[in-house]
């Protein structure tokens, strides 16, 4: 395919050659015309002089009478150099005395009428025969005409020069000018437009021709818009729209580069996984707008704290990844993390809403803890969860042990799943004893797991895993059903009217189907509802308080009592006691253990008084000594449970214990 | 774009068509002779223009021949003498139209009677166009009247100059003038009498025809056929309305009178339609080709 440059070059050559051919043809034609005119003039002169001789000369000897005529003829025509009249080889008359011989090569006008410019210049002499009569005797004379070759050549060359000056040169100049204009105004702009269309690296300047300028302008606008859209698209694909921080895509891209660079330079970097503590609660209680503003605040804060070459990315609702590189030693990383946590903790309000903010950070180091995006992310995430477990606002560095622990947790989770299916669990019952009578009035059901390989697995080890994995829901259902079934059995078989407590985890409690399942169980086993006690922790009451309150009220509406477990260890908010329909309050063992000290007893007594004032019973947990029993009885506590009476027992042993207790 | 290009191409084509040169006319030369009057009549009638034929007139046959030799003419009207002279010079002429045969139109006039000439010892001035049919007519006259032994002073001039010179010169010496219609009328007025003419001299055949180059005839055959029709029409007009015919051709015939015109017509025999058998034989004897005659 032809380029426009070549196309116009060919067109240029074609036009120039065409014009020159036309000029040359016209030039030749004109030369011929001029040659014809000159030859005709020579012819006419020769004929005229010949006719004069033929009609007027009756005696050859008297030819001298014609000399003045011939001279005048020659003088008046600058293209004629000389004329002679000869009879055979004898020159009878000459206008140029130096010519005394007849010429050898001549052009006979009597024989050849046509003559071109070349012949005109070639023939040195033109000749014409004429018959004159002396009396009735014919004498053939020849008239010779000598052209002025210098004048002829000058004349024709003058024509050539004029053609060069007025036709060839102007044409060439005009053609070159035209080509230059085409090149400057059309070819080069089109080439620029082509390059612009291909590469877009340089926007052509404004173009002279309207149509081209329209194309250029359109292309510029289109490419600009495309670039903007492309940038916007890239930005939206790689940037978090809320915080304007890099998102997971950009993080992976930049992390990939960083890993490559670090691998090449044998350098290290720290991968931080930051998660805001209790962010869900903030969202739930103060609304998502406030949550978003908090995210913005935290993002801004981190950008200010970190260096330009560190990477900050938001990869989830309240999850951030920070990559710290180019540090001298791990202590520097620790300091940076410390500053981050401290600064986040300093946030005390968002939009005039008082707020407590903290974050948990898990740290994985390249290449020690991982050499790929996925590994670093996973390990930092594990470390972050570990930090959360440590009580939040913490940092935790990923270790091999932690890794093993997580592996172990995963293993437990898998086994837990199977255990539910295989019914490896058993409920133990720890008696609740009336401090007033010393009689067992109820029991707290406690789950035990007998794993074929692990043996006895403590609830402390698997309940958190069950909560994390959601297995707590089916497990909790099983516990509830077992407890109800057991109570029904004891009621029906032994006429034991015991108050059975069942621990319900916050995860289970917040399940929408919890209440309906509870109702279904009651309907199924037809037990006395008032003999079932649901133990919840403060975490159940936190978060969506409206829903929790509604569920508690509905549960209580069935006649079921509600106990607040582990009171004193968490928020121990009075607002909960006031708002929620709680029947009993269980004081944690840690307080009971410290009853002998003033600092411990003050809290126990305060809690008991407060509960009584609110018309709430008090259950003391972890009672192991007679003195503790006496003390609790003295301060008016209603019920205790603990090893002093009995550790948690399998159902049959518990039954025996109750029987003995009731006999006493 | 293609439409525009087509229009441009058509315009260029039309312009080039407009600017194309008209074909060069067929140029003929003829001298004053009653036999060529149909040609003059056709020219005056405007019949030659559509045929793209131009006719130039000269005074004498000799001038006609020399003019033709300039190379700017395609044909000439003349006698078989000019035809042979020019073909001797490689002019490649062919007779295409026969006009007439001189039947008294060429003559020898004198200021003496034949007997006086036979008796005289003086030099006799002989006026004629040497390089023409005049020579043949004159030589035939000398032979016919046994004047070979006389001394002649040849004066070579065209007919108009002869007339002029006779007018200006008091011609006392015996003189003979070989001339033809229409110049004979003025010479008669100057005292010259016709001593012999082609009417009486049966040995001489003087044929007047139109000669053109073979090339021209080949390329313009149709035109010459049309010309022949025009010539015949002119002669038809002559028969029907001689006076009108005369009025148109008079300037070409030295403004002769109508009577002289009528008399001149009696001195020629028109050969435009047919050539009589006896004449054909005579024509063949003088090697005059008639095969190309239209």
Write a structural description.
- The complex is a heterodimer of chains A (664) and B (294).
- Chain A has 664 residues and is α/β, with parallel strands linked by helices.
- Helices cover 55% and strands 19% of the residues of chain A.
- Chain A has 22 helices and 22 strands.
- In chain A, helix 4 runs parallel beside helix 5, helix 7 (279-286) crosses helix 8 (288-305) and helix 13 runs parallel beside helix 15 (514-525).
- Chain A starts with a helix and ends with a helix.
- The relative contact order of chain A is 0.05.
- With 294 residues, chain B is α/β, with parallel strands linked by helices.
- Chain B has helices spanning 2-18, 37-45, 61-69, 80-88, 114-119, 133-144, 159-168, 183-189, 214-219, 221-240, 242-249, 258-265, 277-285; strands at residues 26-31, 53-58, 75-79, 93-102, 106-110, 124-128, 152-156, 175-180, 193-197, 207-213, 268-270.
- Chain B has a 6-stranded mixed β-sheet with strand order 2-1-3-10-4-11, with helices on both faces. A 5-stranded mixed β-sheet of chain B has the order 7-6-8-5-9, with helices on both faces.
- Chain B is globular.
- The termini of chain B are far apart.
- The A-B interface holds A 40, 43-44, 47, 50-51, 54-55, 58, 109-111, 113, 131, 133, 135-136, 138 and B 62-63, 66-67, 69-72, 89-90, 126, 130-131, 135, 152-158, 161.
Low-confidence stretches of chain A: none
Q: Which shape of chain B, going by the Cα principal axes?
A: globular
Q: Unreliable segments of chain B (pLDDT under 50, ≥5 consecutive)?
A: none
Per DSSP E runs of 2 or more residues, the count of β-strands of chain B stands at 11
User: How many helices of chain A?
Assistant: 22
Give the radius of gyration of chain A: 61 Å
Number of strands of chain A: 22
**First-last Cα distance of chain A:** 113 Å
Q: Mean pLDDT of chain B, nearest integer?
A: 86
Major sheet strand order of chain B? 2-1-3-10-4-11
Which band does the percent of strand residues of chain A land in? 15-25%
Output the structural class of chain A.
Answer: alpha/beta
List the total number of helices of chain B. Answer: 13
